[in-house]
UniProtKB/TrEMBL annotation:
Residues 313-357 form the NADH-ubiquinone oxidoreductase 51kDa subunit iron-sulphur binding domain. Residues 505-525 are annotated as: Disordered. Keywords: 4Fe-4S, Flavoprotein, FMN, Iron, Iron-sulfur, Metal-binding. Belongs to the complex I 51 kDa subunit family. The keyword Lipoprotein does not apply. GO terms for biological process: cellular respiration. This is Oxidoreductase. Its cofactor is [4Fe-4S] cluster; FMN. Residues 505-514 have a biased composition (Polar residues). One of its GO terms (molecular function) is 4 iron, 4 sulfur cluster binding. It comes from Streptomyces coelicolor (strain ATCC BAA-471 / A3(2) / M145).
Length: 525
């Protein structure tokens, strides 16, 4: 923590704040009316901390108006589905301060008169922590409860982190975007107006409700008060999740993490974010407006420098390939465009010359604003900012024989296998990811379009307009292995089969960031 902790208060005392310790550290919280809450969020300029940055007060008022107009109870959803490998701040908050997030969510639920609260997660550790927190408060999904509260666990995939994917999975469908853009504030879970926001956003709201707008505004910038949770990884000696006041110089945060004194570039906002160059780093401060002004992005709060000793195009290519693999496969710009973009970047590295560069630029332009979700837009932004920032390196590859530097793989990725946050005390112990060794295959010579596979295994199968599955093969999520076997056994045409593969192990370079505890950064990995 830089300065006095707010969200991370008590982290230097215990590994996880249960309800009793949470109340000792933060104190009780009085309920607020809907308009009071909206005015508070507006006064502190609270915006979503998951990447989109939508003003919270507008979302709150929109849900209120929709619920009153339709005469239905709204739903509150906390999105803790962190599926970008470069981000871990929400995982840290859910594992260590789940009740602070619940404080904000329950404030909103009471103000809206909601009777349903759902917390979306993608990891076993966050599921355990949040389910324990609900139990500590006596909340459950029982029909007899005044507020039905539950945790929705989805696979770790880039597209599962979107609001539309989470809502679809809560409604019993697969955790992928529905292919059409609908405002959750108007029609979300079960068709009801739904207030969905990121886990850190609810925690920030709980802090502001406790200390008031004036005290909250005493920290950070005048126009963006408060603190920000950042995940700092990449070419750093001490990967960390750290809470900082807005207005702190970005170079200072990088120094704390042990980044190179003069990084070649810094990726800001995660893998749907933007690159900035070394000169720009010295101008930037930690704030949404400042990073936007210098061509970067606060996004989901990920900061990833790379050193002068690595090839930035090669580093970006590994991410581009991963982003292409994370496609939901529902639209051409994503399913076809992102692999084409990755191939274009690979052609540049393989000596494709100016033609390869023009192809990459054209593909990146073509996928934007044409997809069924924001995944192609974010991926294109990542690639276009790379082209803009690393001009010298591009010139070396396009006009010469390359830059001569190796690819060190400093940008973290999920490769199957095991990942670990390295958080002291085991708040998130080393755990298996959600991919299993099983792949399920459709034999099209046998398939007759009965559709039972989609009913039994919606995590994998979706039926097209013709009534047939839309995939030929797919990895089975680990938690759905039993359902996959059931789907194979129930297929009337015997068109499904499962084959066992292997899961590669993550290398040490992909270890997840560690937490900065209390007022000093612990240098543990």
């Amino acid at each position: 923590m830089v300065g006095l902790p707010q969200l991370t208060s008590g982290f230097d005392l215990v590994e996880r704040l249960d309800l009793s310790m949470h109340l000792k550290v933060h104190g009780p919280l009085e309920p607020l009316g809907g308009e009071q809450l909206a005015k508070l969020a507006e006064a502190i300029n609270l915006k979503g901390r998951g990447g989109a940055g939508f003003p919270f007060h507008k979302k709150l008022r929109s849900v209120t108006e929709a619920a009153i107009k339709r005469g239905v109870r709204p739903v509150v959803v906390v999105n803790g589905s962190e599926s970008d490998p470069s981000c871990r701040k929400d995982t840290v908050l859910i594992n260590r301060a789940p009740h602070l997030i619940l404080d904000g969510a329950l404030l909103v639920a009471e103000a809206l008169g909601a009777r349903t609260l759902v917390v979306g997660v993608t990891r076993e550790s966050t599921q355990r922590s949040m389910e324990a927190a609900l139990a500590e408060r006596g909340l459950s999904n029982s029909r007899r409860s005044a507020l039905r509260a539950s945790v929705q666990r989805n696979p770790v995939r880039m597209v599962t982190g979107s609001a539309a994917s989470l809502i679809r999975s809560i409604d019993g469908g697969p955790a992928i975007p529905p292919g059409r853009k609908v405002s959750a504030s108007q029609s979300g879970v079960g068709g009801a107006p739904t207030l969905l926001s990121n886990a850190e956003t609810f925690a920030q709201l709980a802090i502001a409700a406790r200390i008031g707008r004036e005290r909250y505004g005493n920290t950070g910038l005048y126009d963006e008060p408060g603190t920000v949770m950042l995940t700092v990884s990449g070419a750093v000696a001490r990967p960390m999740v750290i809470e900082v006041p807005t207005g702190v110089p970005l170079r200072y945060v990088l120094q704390l993490a042990g980044a190179p004194p003069v990084p070649q570039g810094v990726l800001t906002g995660g893998y749907h974010g933007k690159w900035i160059d070394a000169a720009t780093v010295n101008e930037a401060i930690v704030s949404r407006n400042s990073l936007d002004a210098v061509g970067g992005a606060l996004g989901a709060g990920a900061i990833l420098p790379i050193s002068q000793e690595t090839c930035p195009l090669g580093e970006a290519l590994q991410v581009a390939k991963w982003l292409a693999e994370e496609s939901a496969g529902q639209c051409g710009p994503c399913y076809l465009g992102l692999p084409a973009a990755a191939r274009g970047l690979e052609d540049i590295l393989n000596g494709g010359g100016p033609a390869a560069l023009e192809t990459l630029k054209q593909v990146a332009r073509n996928v934007k604003r044409r997809g069924a979700c924001s995944h192609p837009d974010g991926s294109a932004m990542f690639l276009e900012s790379m082209i803009k920032v690393f001009t010298d390196d591009l010139a070396a590859h396009v006009l010469g024989n390359g830059c001569g530097r190796p690819v060190e793989g400093v940008l973290p990725l999920f490769e199957g296998g095991r990942t670990s946050t390295g958080i002291p005390g085991g708040a998130e112990a080393t755990e298996e990811d959600d991919s299993s060794r099983q792949k399920i295959y459709v034999d099209w010579t046998l398939c007759r379009g009965h559709g039972l596979c989609a009913d039994i295994l919606p995590e994998v199968f979706e039926l097209g307009a013709d009534g047939f599955p839309t995939v030929t093969q797919a990895q089975v999520p680990r938690y759905a292995e039993a359902k996959a076997l059931h789907a194979v056994g129930r297929c009337p045409a015997l068109a499904l089969r499962i084959e066992e593969g292997t899961r590669a192990q993550d290398s040490s370079r992909n270890n997840l960031p560690v937490l900065s505890q209390g007022r000093r950064a612990r240098e543990k990995r």
